[in-house]
Specification:
By secondary structure, the protein is α/β, with parallel strands linked by helices. It is built from 13 helices and 12 strands. It binds zinc ion (ZN). Zinc ion binds next to loops.
Length: about 350
């Protein structure tokens, strides 16, 4: 049943809408139709007809009276309706509704209030990004226009590459899924063994595991190269955009201590390195990506990431200390920077670190 709006108030409200409509060019007739439909009439013609019948006493079915309570009750429904009728977003519709009913809405529905809410729970390592009061609890997320679940998760603080799977109302979804009012969301860390492979979000590239490390992780890059992994690391800071784009184009797992970098849309496979000390960082990455079966010590140059290969002993005579030349039989050389390697004390230390990283797992 439609609501009673006097023609005087109707005209005033139509003027308000024309004045405050988010974009120009909307015809007055369209505005009047939107208002009529908002209050339950088929269109403006229907409104005028029913009001004339009402005024003359012909209307058998009475119109609803509008009160502060009724406007408050219909608030959410009208925001959605006005947004749909006027092809505007929910925030714009809400602002307009507050202009129409300033006295009725200001107190009980402040314009700053969000219309919808969803309940979100983060599991496992996703909690590393939350503040203390949000740890392992259900968070209420408030919103107006439905965000993608990816935007919502990142707004709370968890970068998308750290997410392994998402379920909404007990169904697995992708990042593009839009949040709707009343949704119950579960967010699992990366990797997520509970989810079927086709719904798992990116974890690591197919084939060879390659890394790209930010400028602050030079120590970790050397450790990973020591274990034989391909690690791109630049001494100079090339900026976040370069890191994000290179990681995507070269199919490298991006390792960083910068959470903001992980939220860049182009970044796909990445991890926020939790630990501060290099040796602990190395163990963390070995454990997370299950790297120990792939260790190949003395295959990659620690300095420049080039490949190293065996070289005849006599060829290095001039380039290594005399004692080393006498004691060692086998030498290797980086085919990029010509650094020479042998199984000396640094090799023993390297083996110790690799061994201890395995035993810590
Ligand atoms: Zn080298």
């Amino acid at each position: 049943m439609p609501y009673f709006i006097s023609t005087k108030i109707f005209k005033q409200q139509a003027k308000i809408l024309v004045r405050h409509w988010p974009f120009a060019g909307l015809k007055n007739s369209h505005i009047r139709n939107i208002l009529s439909q908002l209050y339950g009439y088929k269109d403006n013609h229907d409104y005028l007809k029913q009001l004339a019948e009402y005024d003359s006493g012909l209307n058998i079915a009475p119109l609803h009276a509008l009160s502060e309570t009724m406007v408050g009750l219909h608030y959410k429904e009208w925001v959605i309706k006005m947004a749909k009728l006027g092809a505007i977003n929910h925030i714009q519709a809400k602002t307009l509704l507050h202009k129409l009913w300033p006295a009725y809405l200001s107190a009980q529905n402040p314009a700053s209030d969000k219309l919808y809410s969803a309940k979100i729970r983060f599991h496992g390592a996703c909690n590393d990004f939350l503040d203390r009061k949000s740890l392992n609890t259900t968070i209420e997320y408030l919103f107006n226009d439905p965000p993608s679940i990816k935007d919502c998760i990142e707004a709370i603080g968890v970068p998308h590459p750290e997410v392994g799977a998402i379920s909404i109302n007990n169904s697995w979804v992708t990042f593009r899924n839009l949040l709707t009012d009343g949704d119950s969301v579960e967010v699992f860390p990366n990797p997520c063994p509970q989810v079927s492979p086709d719904m798992a979000l990116p974890f690591k590239p197919e084939g060879e595991i390659k890394f790209l490390l930010d400028v602050h992780l030079g120590g970790l890059a050397r450790y990973l190269r020591m274990a034989g992994f391909d690690c791109m690391h630049q001494q100079e800071d090339n900026g976040d955009q370069w890191l994000a784009e290179t990681s995507a184009s070269d199919n490298r797992i991006l390792l960083t201590r910068d959470i903001g970098l992980l939220k860049r849309a182009v970044v796909d496979q990445a991890r926020w390195v939790r630990n501060i000390l290099t040796e602990s960082q190395f163990c963390e990455i070995v454990l997370h990506y299950d790297l120990s079966p792939h260790f190949q010590a003395l295959t990659r140059c620690i300095k420049c990431n080039g490949h190293i290969a065996a070289i005849e002993k006599h060829a290095v005579k001039e380039y290594v200390p005399q004692g080393v030349y006498k004691q060692q039989k086998d030498f290797k050389i980086c085919n990029n920077c010509q650094q020479i390697y042998w199984k000396g004390s640094h090799y023993d230390k390297m083996q110790d670190i690799l061994r201890s990283s395995k035993t810590r797992l």
